[in-house]
Design a protein that fits this description.
single chain, mainly alpha, Arc Repressor Mutant, subunit A, Tetracycline Repressor, domain 2, 2 domains, 9 helices, repressor, DNA-binding
Length: 199
């Protein structure tokens, strides 16, 4: 029997996805440090040994959860589009998606907070994640500046840093008080304040 394209047999890929979904649920409830592989295995309906076949360490499972989220976001919102207005529009679309999926936003926010310490297993991931987000938005603001679409006096690097910080900071405030914080409208307002024409 031949392995399915994309790596692994279909049954194995389905089992792997079941484990990742269970991990998301457990991390969301207990945080990364408060969770265990045994609890994830129980939620996924497999043995602890069965889970270890797919993810030999707790760190490997966490990395897979984060990578799956990034891959899904990138594919759905086309975040690898050429720099410019399209990239910024895709980030707004990502925010619109996130407000309909509070569970994954909550998990991401918890992990990001835990991972500020250098010895956290997700620390390097978040360093890369934020660097890539800043670089992507910086290139977009830089291109828009060259096209005369960035307001006078707006520094592309500062605008990028502010936009990324605003996205994550608003997510935390929105999770805390969703009726009072309009995440998407606030992001749009920021972009309208730095661009010469609405997005």
């Amino acid at each position: 029997m031949r392995a399915a394209e994309g790596g692994g047999y279909p049954k194995g890929r389905i089992r792997r996805e079941d484990i990742l979904s269970a991990a998301v649920a457990v991390y969301g409830e207990a945080g990364y440090h408060g969770s265990s592989l045994r609890e994830v295995a129980k939620r996924a309906g497999i043995t602890h040994a069965g889970l270890l076949y797919y993810f030999p360490t707790k760190e490997a499972l966490l990395a897979a959860v984060l990578e799956r989220r990034d891959a899904e976001d990138s594919e759905r919102e086309q975040l690898d589009a050429p720099p410019g207005r399209d990239v910024l529009a895709h980030f707004i679309a990502l925010a619109e998606h996130n407000v309909t999926h509070p569970g994954i936003v909550d998990l991401y926010s918890r992990l990001a907070a835990e991972a500020v310490v250098p010895d956290h297993p997700a620390h390097d991931y978040f360093v890369r994640h934020y660097r890539l987000a800043r670089e992507s938005t910086f290139e977009s603001f830089r291109v828009l500046a060259e096209q005369g679409e960035l307001r006078d006096g707006v520094d592309p690097a500062a605008a990028a840093l502010t936009f990324v910080a605003l996205m994550d900071g608003l997510q935390v405030q929105w999770l805390t008080d969703p009726d009072e914080v309009d995440l998407v409208a606030t992001l749009r307002h920021f972009l309208d304040s730095v661009l010469t024409k609405p997005l």
